[in-house]
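Re: the 174-residue chain
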Amino acid sequence: MKKGFTLIELLIVIAIIAILAGVVFVSLDPLKRFQSARNAARWTDVTAVLSAVKVDQVDNGGGYLSAIAGLTTGLNYMISANNTGAAAPVTGCNTNCSAVTAVDRCVLLEDGFVGLAKEGYLANIPISPDNPSIPTAWDAAHSGYYISRDDAKQGAITVGACSAEGGETISVSR
């Protein structure tokens, strides 16, 4: 009698290895891990912006930065930074952001001379990580984040991300 494996035994072992490899690959889905990493960066950014706005408010005796104080309550505005010192962008601010419903809804939180970063509250205005399903990349004029003020809630500020992935909604309010 010869010792060895039959063809059936080899096929069963190969099938088991293939099933295990498939389970491991699905559980370690790299696409989902990249989405989670980009969403984590977005959570960090919106929290940092909101904290900077609130610290600035406290330091200014309860008043908001003039750009935020001028927002129409209840509307979302694309956060923009213009580090060149030139005039603020006024159109195209809702580029691929469903939360910002009009092209003229920009808020310049950094203009090269004053703003959250220039006053030391942020290192710079964050730019959202690119979402592969949205063709336009975010930049300083279109940060990928929005902000709103709600006077009905005692002037609560909400900062959110335009391009959260995986069905997640990213926004914080205070």
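The chain has a mean pLDDT of 85.
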